[in-house]
Queue: 2 jobs
Job 1
Amino acid sequence: MIVPVILSGGSGTRLWPLSRELHPKQFLPLVNSKSLLQDTVERLNGLPSAAAPIIVCNQEHRFLVAEQLRERGLRSSATILEPVGRNTAPAAAVAALHAMREGDDPVLLLLPSDHVVTDSHLFRSAVSAAVPQAMEGRLITFGVRPTGPETGYGYIRAGASLGAANVSLVERFVEKPDRETAESYVASGEYVWNSGMFLFRASVYLSELQTHAPDILDACRASLDEAAVDLEFIRLGEDAFGACRSDSIDYAVFEKTKAAAVVTLEAGWSDVGSWAALWDVGTHSADGNVARGDVVVHNVRNSYLHSEDRLIAAVGLENMVVVETADAVLIANKDSVQDVKTLVTKLKDSGRSEGQTHRKVYRPWGAYDSVDTAERFQVKHITVKPGATLSLQMHHHRAEHWIVVRGTARVTRGEENFLITENQSTYIPLGTKHRLENPGTIPLEIIEVQSGSYLGEDDIVRFEDVYGRQDKA
């Protein structure tokens, strides 16, 4: 049996402003109508003997993961929540330990949630070809045949063939090279890109981790022993996992083990780690442009233009990236997009929210869009999914006015409980316990006007919450 393990802990800061810390790139539909996470899970359809995946994600993203799986009718066998990010070696360890708890020793297929693979059939064929080697105790990594001298990827030098098609011993791993070195690697035909995808038996990986990084294994085992079930999620022990050192699976195991093998993969892979990479995998016009959303151009060539909310009108551009969202616009030369990460760091250092979250924020019950904000007031457009319920809560510093523009709302206000419908409104005084519910079968939409001395999201005291969220005072 193959148990896929989907790693969904990345932040994708190089794809800002679309990708934000609280809504990173794996949850975005960057190439087609599906998110990268949804594409990753659906890519497994048709893989022989594949079970439902284990998903390892940041605890802040748990409801995004659950909602995106629900949208596509997908399911996981377990969703494991990391209290802090500790890179891929610990994430793989907790997945392997969990997979073996029922006494099985499955083959694990470790996949990042934010990569693009355009040919799913070839991907599944490469995995199937590698399974016999994994069953025999090999730790398999998938190496992508280079299409050019890319300096943003690590490389793997393949050694002697293991007899099976495209399966070889790993001779050595190489860090991201400079341009001249990358050109020599590609010209030699002996190197492949390190894709970050792996295949191995759970017990074999844990044994190698015990040999090469026993402290990581001990911390992961302790964090799983201390784990708590939270709704459909497995919440790792915070102290034990927080004490684990951060390390990648490459450094912790694969560069040290003698059991590593590489399978050459030619399936249209990209880690879409920058806007230039996203331009590479996009559909190009006759002028070499990739345009998504409301875009009108004249005399524009070899550029990437992405509109979320407003018209982008561009004239006389070449080799440029223009990305528009509701609260930010990125303009960059395509050759400089690796520096977007530096911009995000500057935004966070200056305390700006645009580095962390979008104007529209998703919650397990729906979403809210901060339409307007000024001193002592804020206006939000709130959407509540059918049957969903917000927490019973109160605020110390703000009052709220609710106006229903679509659907029906059930309101709890102090000891009162009543319905309001379209074009009706109500008022929630400061310090009053309240709750909003959608008892209907269509989305509930309301306009909320907040007024008060402090309007931050941390001014919430929760008394009851069906989603198990903690109190915030």
Job 2
Amino acid sequence: MSKIRRIVSNALALVLVVVLSGCVQSQSSTSRVVDKRKALDSYIALAVAYLQQGDRDAARRNFEKALEIDKGSAEAHNGMGLLYKLTGETALAEQSFQRAIKENRSFTQARLNYGVFLYAQNRFAEAYDAFEAASKDLSYNRRALTLAYVGQTALKLGDEARAESAFEHSLNIDNTLSLSMIELAQLYFDKEDYAQSKRYLDQYSAVAKPSPKSLWLGIRIERIFGNKDKEASYALALRNLHPYSKEYLEYKNLKNQQVPRSE
């Protein structure tokens, strides 16, 4: 929270400097352009900080101020898209993300955000296209995560081969990305390659907290390998950490299944 307060404080200071400098009559046109850019950046920084704090009204006001300075600001339209998504105004969110991309075709973050929005709307084919486009940006600092999203969306579209290659590609870029590890563990389990599944699950367990998905997968893998102690350990963790998860219900159903007795 202190980091967000610092961002807000710095942005407010920049806005104040820009406002005061605008009062100087002898200001050159170049200086005015620079100050306009500073004000725009400051309002966007403020809006993002308020959005992270959960203050949506303040975020909206500052995004709107940014758009008053530059109605074609891709960053401000992207921010409005995130805001509208949070408030459940899906049509406005989509318009904002599309406007951000239109204003700046190389704005990868907007493409990623638009893909996440489309995925949440179960529009998987469109989300896949957005994620694929974003993943082409070799300089994007979240490219590994973007490729993981490509993989998840490919799974929704039934393309397991593309999903597997996208997850593996993402791990080549960031070998600590737990999302790709657990998805590959599940993929290999479904293909009955249990050794590979366990390998990726072990990698996941080394970098991430246990999730219902990872624990349920661990139970089934260890049952296949006959490791009763490890299976029981996974089961205990699932019961204690995620007792209301669908995975725990599936485990209970499996546990309660009666094995038929031979006559």
